[in-house]
Fold this protein.
Amino acid sequence: MKLFLKIFFLIPVFSFSQENYFNETPINISLDSINKQIIYQTNKSLFFIDSEKLNILNRKKILGSGTLNLHTIVKKNKILFLDKNGGDIFILNSKDSLKKDDNSHIKKFFLGNFHFIKNDTLFKHGGYGYWTQSNFITYYDELTKEWQIYSISKTSEIPRSADTHIGISWGNYYSFFGGNTLIENGSRIKNRRNKEVWSFNFNNKEWSLLGKYKESNLNLNSEIFSNEGDLYILDETKQLFKVDILNNSITKYKRTPILYDFYKVNPLYYKGYVYYVNNKGVVSKTLLSEITRDIEDTDIFYSENHTLQIILIILFVSVTSSICLYFLTKYRGRNKLRFIKNKIHYKSKFIELDDLSISIIKIISKRETKLSEILELVSQSHLSKIQNERNRNLIISKINLKLKILTKNKSDFLLVSKSTFDKRYKIVSINNSAYGNFL
């Protein structure tokens, strides 16, 4: 009789053995840190597993979940079922049936989004739906029970839109990289990866482009888990990496046999252990130190974005060049003859000339001028030809004398010579070799 009673009481224990659910399809695992439990979601059930001994504490069959694409999270010790593709949030009622707990009506707009909890607020970033792609962060408003767009600073950069990307919430920041992105004409290309690494600062509400990661360093078809600011990525080949956004580094670890037992469900980190679903559909754990013991390689994760620095450098060079050019032009201008109204300036000095002299100089400065043309300018009808010629020569001599005094140049400013085209004519030209060009 005693033996019968012992067997009778052991039956429930055996019925809660993990081996009884390995035929169910694993979906994800989440952490209930308050109760020190791992919550394991399959396509049919929720299993509550002790984090130390890994024995099943409770099991709930989820009714009405067969047609839904859900992902469980634990928020304030409350289990929420998130629609991966939309904004619906479900909870379990007393009969273990799913009950809609939000007022949103967002359907198939968050395909491939990344969700995270920060300061007890549920956030979603990115996603795809209705032939468009999101580049903003949304949060779940507990009062209205609806999704709202999280506002950013007016001075913020605008981030790259993305879906099926990798994200991590650390400190006061959220960072993301990878995933699908849009090309310039708005078409979504499935095999095109987003190479940019973006980070959002929750303090000043600004996005910043950190740079571009090296595709050769990382295969993003993988499972991820995080430990504070460290993001761990296990790729298809069972290669484990650690990405440190803050210090811009990526660490590649040597493969260990236990990694080949990880099933394609995101693991989670808790108190030194990595919890994962193994290939038998059973929740297991291993020390993080065991799978990160041997380092194979380290490298920078992304090439830093120097766009702002380049713009500032170009702006500085442009302004400096403009200032230098201004002063150089001004300095050179001081050593050249310049017309200002009825005066000719040279360095800090000037001379005044009558209107007729100014007119003659302006004409000759543009082209070589026949001496006869100058005569026509100075001629007065009541004077004889000889008197007019004398006045012409006198004006030319007067101009030359004043320019010599102004510049302290011994050469004549206006030169009279025979025309190179016709020796019968004389021309007047400015002595550019001695006085330079006019400004």
Q: What stands out?
A: The first strand starts at residue 26 and ends at 32. The chain has seven helices and 35 strands.
